[in-house]
Amino acid sequence: MASSPLTDLDFALRLLTAVGCGVLIGLERQWRSRTAGLRTNALVATGACAFVLFGQLVSQTQAPLQIAAYVVSGVGFLGGGVILRQGSSVQGLNTAATLWCSAAIGCLAAAGHAAAALAVTGVVIGVHLLLRPLGRLVDRTPTSGGDEQRAYQVTVEVRRKHEGHLRAQVLQSLSGTDARLQGLTSTTSEDDASATLALLLVVDGSDTSQLNQLVERLSLEQGVRSVAWQEHRALEAAGDDAG
């Protein structure tokens, strides 16, 4: 760590470096609708940088190193929150590793190593962009939980008085699946006797078995007249809650 006093200009430049690197990583993650996207990676890099900079501001030789160690363990807890287990598959490990790298980049920026921070940023983005197709090529056993995401629209026609109950059942049914609800619209019929719910779901991989099970469960709910689903091409329209 630098032993010279940290000026306000140095503080601002190092913090901006961390933010910029976090944004670059977050853009790629947001584009792929990952759990931790633009804001999350930018905030992790910023927070890690700010903590280490604080250690330098208090003018203690070992403080930045000690704080950096705490940042590593703290980000570990944050990464644990994005790791999910669905049956025999585990999802979110890649996202957690990306957050870990964002924290490391923040520490590098705080230490004044802007070139190293940018280099690690480039490596992280390169890993996501280049190693994904290589991984698919090497992976000889197809799985249902790959990196590919697909959007589906589920349309449910229900009696108006049962609409509220059906909304609750939709959320409950989705809690045990890999499908993520990205949008919900409701249209009422002219006679106000029925409502049509349009659910926009994002699913990892191309396996539609869980989607079929969801449709089957909803079709058995009280007041449901019809249920149908189709692939939704506009995956980019799937909300802003990716990070």
Description of the molecule:
- The protein is α+β, with helices and mostly antiparallel strands and 243 residues long.
- It has two domains: 8-138, no CATH class; 149-234, Alpha-Beta Plaits (2-Layer Sandwich).
- The protein is built from seven helices and six strands; from the N terminus they run αααββααβαββαβ.
- It has helices at residues 8-31, 38-57, 63-80, 93-110, 114-138, 163-174, 209-219, and strands spanning 84-86, 89-91, 149-159, 180-188, 194-204, 224-232.
- A four-stranded antiparallel sheet has the order 4-5-3-6, covered by helices on one side. The protein has a two-stranded antiparallel ribbon with strand order 1-2.
- A hairpin with a 5-residue loop joins strand 4 and strand 5 (194-204).
- Helix 1 runs parallel beside helix 5 (114-138) and helix 4 packs antiparallel against helix 5.
- The longest helix has 25 residues, at 114-138.
- The radius of gyration is 23 Å and the shape is elongated.
- It starts with 7 loop residues before the first helix and ends in an 11-residue tail after the last strand.
- Residues 141-146 and 234-243 have low confidence and may be disordered.
